[in-house]
């Protein structure tokens, strides 16, 4: 399941000249476990169609910036765990994809996502039109002289809480996560916060500086959140990112699907169309799936599955089972 859907996503992406796919273990006889081979053979006809279907077009979404070999220049915080060091090289794009946000890794994208130690290496020209940041990214860019809404950094330490407050409501859950504590600019708009010692500590805010650059800042540290947590991914957080992209750019994401965790959306734009892959990377099915598009389109063609186009929305005829996917193309 994981192997085949990952294979499908890589083929849809199309930027790899080969795919290294381990479907055998190292110790048992070849004929002992044949399930992975059987699954690969069964999936191969559709995988080849996916590859051909997405051959044309440019991937569209939020640009995730990442740089290898960043440990040598990293600032290691007190009370870190081993996961922190292991996670430093990761681009942390799973924060976006875990909230069903289309991403890209090799073009300008709609806006930039800069997280963790990658902010120490990013060319500052990429934030000309603003960016989405995590706590460490905001800290580092502040130290590099960029106004992201922080007057003075106070500390970066863990905070325990049992409730996070959003504009839409409250989420009750136990948390103990590292947050950026700071004297924030009076013009920041707090999108969510926790209460700690009679103080409100923002977990997300929006801010436009004097140069007109707009930022959505999440004050937690994504390099310490490679594993799942409600702080990292939930329906309110998903909305913050979707609305934030539109606020920063004045444009909608090419496609969104709400309230279905770990639905990986891969979008490719051609001159006359938008191609969308809806990959359900979650152990629950997507019930009554609806994909919201960035504008109205005139017609639709499915690679697999079926459904109907209603202005700027695609309504699929059937639920999407766990680790299955549906691909379609809508035309201007």
What does this structure look like?
The protein is an alpha+beta fold and 332 residues long. It has six helices and 18 strands. The strands form three sheets. It has a nine-stranded mixed beta sheet with strand order 3-2-4-5-10-9-8-6-7, sandwiched between helices. A hairpin with a 3-residue loop joins strand 12 and strand 13 (273-280). The longest helix has 19 residues, at 35-53.
Describe, in short, the structure shown.
This protein has 332 residues and is of the alpha+beta class. It has helices at residues 2-13, 35-53, 82-87, 94-97, 135-143, 235-249; strands at 58-59, 62-64, 103-104, 112-114, 131-133, 150-166, 170-184, 189-196, 199-208, 214-218, 255-256, 263-269, 273-280, 290-293, 299-302, 307-310, 313-316, 325-331.
Alpha carbon gap, first and last residue? 34 Å
Q: What's the number of helices?
A: 6
- Which spans of ≥5 residues are poorly predicted at pLDDT below 50? none
List the helices and strands in order: HHEEHHEEEHEEEEEHEEEEEEEE
Report the sheet with the most strands, covering strand number, pairing sense and barrel closure: 9 strands, mixed
Overall, the morphology is globular
Helix/strand-derived category reads: alpha+beta
Radius of gyration: 21 Å
Mean pLDDT: 90
- Helical fraction equals 10-25%
Strand order, main sheet: write it out. Answer: 3-2-4-5-10-9-8-6-7
Beta-strand fraction estimate? 25-35%
Count all strands and give the number: 18
């Amino acid at each position: 399941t994981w192997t085949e859907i990952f294979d499908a996503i890589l083929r849809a992406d199309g930027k790899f000249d080969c795919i290294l796919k381990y479907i055998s273990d190292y110790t048992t006889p070849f004929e002992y476990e044949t399930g992975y081979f059987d699954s690969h053979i069964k999936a191969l006809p559709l995988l080849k169609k996916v590859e051909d279907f997405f051959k044309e077009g440019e991937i569209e979404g939020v640009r995730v910036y990442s740089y290898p070999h960043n440990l040598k220049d990293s600032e290691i915080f007190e009370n870190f765990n081993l996961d922190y060091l292991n996670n430093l090289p990761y681009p942390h794009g799973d924060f976006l994809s875990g909230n069903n946000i289309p991403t890209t890794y090799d073009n300008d994208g709609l806006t930039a996502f800069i997280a963790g130690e990658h902010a120490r290496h990013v060319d500052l020209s990429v934030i000309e039109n603003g960016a989405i940041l995590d706590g460490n990214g905001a800290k580092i860019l502040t130290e590099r002289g960029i106004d992201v809404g922080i007057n003075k950094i106070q500390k970066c330490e863990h905070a325990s809480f049992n409730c996070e407050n959003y504009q839409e409501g409250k989420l009750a859950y136990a948390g103990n996560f590292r947050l950026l504590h700071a004297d924030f600019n009076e013009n920041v708009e707090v999108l969510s916060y926790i209460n700690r010692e009679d103080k409100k500590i923002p977990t997300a805010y929006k801010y436009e500086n004097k140069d007109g650059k707009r930022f959505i800042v999440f004050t937690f540290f994504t390099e310490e959140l490679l594993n799942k947590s409600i702080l990292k991914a939930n329906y309110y957080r998903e909305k913050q990112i979707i609305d934030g992209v539109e606020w920063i750019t004045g444009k909608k994401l090419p496609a969104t699907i709400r309230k279905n965790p770990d639905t990986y959306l891969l979008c490719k734009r051609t001159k006359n169309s938008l191609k969308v892959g809806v990959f359900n990377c979650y152990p629950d099915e997507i019930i009554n799936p609806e994909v919201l598009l960035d504008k109205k389109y005139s017609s639709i063609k499915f690679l697999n599955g079926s459904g109907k186009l209603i202005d700027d929305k695609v309504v699929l005829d059937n639920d999407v089972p766990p680790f299955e996917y549906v691909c379609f193309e809508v035309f201007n």
